Amino acid sequence: MISIPFISRKRYIEVKAYTNHLGVYETAPVSQNVISKMKKQDISFTDTGTFYTGCWSRVNTKANSITIQSPCEVKIDCLGPDVCETYAADRQIISMDFTHHTDPSYPDRDFFISKIIMPWVFEDNHNINFVIARHMENTTMMNVLSGLTNFRTQPSSNIFNVIPKIKHRYKIPPLHPMASIYPMSSLPLHLEVYHDPIKYNQLNEKHLRLYFNGSSIKKDKGRKCAGGHQ
Questions:
Q1: What is the rounded distance in angstroms from the CA atom of residue 32 to the CA atom of residue 14?
Q2: Residue 28 lies in domain
């Protein structure tokens, strides 16, 4: 892992990712594509290579985002409009719940919302917003809800998956790219990944629940989410 010299750090979005699980750190870490950025090419009929090597948008998107991959196999089994079951090969790594689906503030709908709690927390050096969205190489039937997050108040990396209330099932293989995290900044991105259970727990413990007060977002300092997840 390459660290940025201190004198240059303000010219980068420096993101540090922490996990409490050594196996996840070694086999399925969050990552940033290290392929060099491409200069945008003029429109022509010349051969620019395959989609993976010649698409300017794809290469630069991966170079400026963080990939969250599945650390184990996950199964989604929807039995109909009333029952949806989820399985993780290792529930000590990934946990899933449907608490947001039963939130009374949401109207009735024709789909389930599952929350996949990943074993990662993040911090950055600029206190900017990030976008979480479905990964462009996610070829499963996942329907990832996109949204904004800020690691200062929400260091965890939950993935919300929409599951239609129709009978169907699918799998998310281990190491499959699930979601991407994009910094809302024109500065270049630099990612550092650590196995650090102490730091992982510290970031989770200082997590604050947010709530709305009129048109403003407030911090509820008296309550914390269980496990530090929103």
A1: 12
A2: 6-37+49-228
